[in-house]
Design goal:
Tet_transcr_reg_TetR-rel_C_sf, 9 helices, Homeodomain-like_sf, mainly alpha
């Protein structure tokens, strides 16, 4: 009998990530991951207690990948970076976005908290947002994310006019972000809260 193949936790997560990118997180099964690795299911169960634990590891990878994409943008604006990364992710991985955004799930419980903190910290580097406290920055982020999510879903579902390219989408995001920040500054000057 030939020796059983051994796979690292990272190799298993990478195999599950490959499935998720093409078919979505809900499509990950222990059997599919084993097939991707050319293995039996045993090595997967050595590293993960069940498929849900493996899916959570993939969601963590998605979060890390998303943060990396944001930091690679360098648009000069936190909202520009966030928006450009989100749109790029939606174009490249529509099945994954559908699973994470359009379906009720528990995948993003920790993601939203961790990513929210990361995004607010990124926002603090923008001179345009100086003077806003943590709570105000989180409200600005929530408003921008609401718009961003809608635009992302339009990208995933191919509901934008064909001539509306990535550059046009980024310009729209910049425009809306600017308007949200201006409105927040006006409210802050007037002393009202969100």
């Amino acid at each position: 009998m030939p020796p059983k193949k051994k796979f690292s936790t990272e190799q298993i997560i990478e195999a599950a990530w490959s499935i998720a990118k093409e078919e979505g997180i809900d499509s990950i099964t222990i059997r599919k991951v084993a097939n991707q690795l050319g293995s039996s299911i045993a090595p997967i169960y050595v590293n993960f207690s069940d498929v849900e634990e493996l899916k959570q590891a993939v969601v963590k990878k998605v979060s890390q990948f998303g943060q990396q994409m944001i930091h690679e943008q360098n648009t000069g604006s936190p909202f520009g970076d966030i928006g450009a990364a989100s749109l790029q992710f939606a174009q490249e991985y529509p099945a994954l976005v559908r699973d994470l955004v359009m379906k009720p799930n528990d995948y993003l419980q920790n993601y939203d908290q961790d990513m929210g903190t990361e995004l607010v910290n990124h926002m603090k580097t923008d001179p345009e947002l100086a003077g806003f406290d943590e709570k105000e920055l989180r409200m600005i982020l929530l408003k921008m994310r609401a718009f961003q999510t809608g635009l992302t879903m339009m990208v995933v579902n191919r509901q934008l006019p064909p001539e509306f390219d990535l550059k046009s989408m980024r310009e729209l995001l910049d425009s809306v972000a600017g308007e949200i920040v201006i409105a927040a500054k006006i409210r802050k000057q007037e002393g009202s809260s969100d």
